[in-house]
Amino acid sequence: MGITCTHPQTANSTALKVQPCESEELEILTPRPTVQKNVIFIWNLDIFKTLMTESSQGDKEKEVLLEEIDDLVLDLAETHFNFKDLQHYEMKNVYENPLIDTGQNEKQSNFSDDPEKYGHLTNDTLSVEEKQRFNKLASLCRKVKKSYCEKCRQNIDDLIKEEKRQQWSNVKQNMEALRDKGLSEAITSLQIINSRSSCVNILYTTSHLIPALAHVLLFQMGNIFKIENIYSTANIGKEKGFKMISEQFGNNCNVFGVGKDDEKIAEKLKMAFWKVADQSDVDSLHHALKMNYL
């Protein structure tokens, strides 16, 4: 794997934590202004799921562990992020959605009749009922943002339901076994990037946005990825997703993924690509960051 050299950045050995949100206020959600960064690091969520199961002895053990993780993630998503009400709405980002937000806090509603189909309409063309519907959705998104900010500062043990404690114990044991292996070193690499004011860590998922937030909560990475910097490409595809991120933050993007699909899209968009799928990949990446090659 080759190392892509960019302008050297200062890499502090002391890890810098970021706040889970730019602001915890329940302000009206509107698209964020463009924020240009010198270097953008785009991470596939699957990297951390892969590293989480690296210590598994066989395919069966890995399958069981992934099922336990997915079950815990779903429970966290429903308990803390209103996933039952939002699961039918494909959100790209907590800010980047076709929402009509007047700041009202309305009662929760189910969005099972495909609210995305109204995304092209403006406030002037929507009916009163449709405007109310989107206001309710915006209210839920604001609650998700506030919950993410609050929960990321809490002990994850306190966020797991009593009936899920045994599952969490198994997953936690596996996480602790990886502290001196790939997962820990990957997180250290993320923290080095966070220490550079001209750089930004972006996380993306190919599935729904809300479970991705729950994954960050479970993996205790809320001090690394702000909710504003977490994206879903589920309904637009990776290529459009990478373009959207580039337009928001800048053109000097490094994509970190686990498969050929990430690599092909990165090459097509003239973005540097790093494969991060095992310990040797993580070692190479960490070395490049420490030596300011990346």
What do the pLDDT scores average to?
81
Q: What percentage of the residues does DSSP assign to strands (E)?
A: 5-15%
User: Strand sequence of the main sheet, in spatial order?
Assistant: 3-2-1-4-5
Determine the N-to-C terminus distance: 13 Å
The total strand number stands at 5
Could you explain the architecture of this structure?
- The protein is globular.
- The protein starts with 38 loop residues before the first strand and ends with a helix.
- Strands 3-2-1-4-5 form a 5-stranded parallel sheet, with helices on both faces.
- With 294 residues, the chain is α/β, with parallel strands linked by helices.
- Strand 2, helix 7 and strand 3 (230-232) form a beta-alpha-beta unit.
- Helix content is 43%, strand content 9%.
- The model is unreliable at 1-16 and 108-113 (pLDDT under 50).
- It is built from 10 helices and 5 strands, in the order E-H-H-H-H-H-H-E-H-E-H-E-H-E-H.
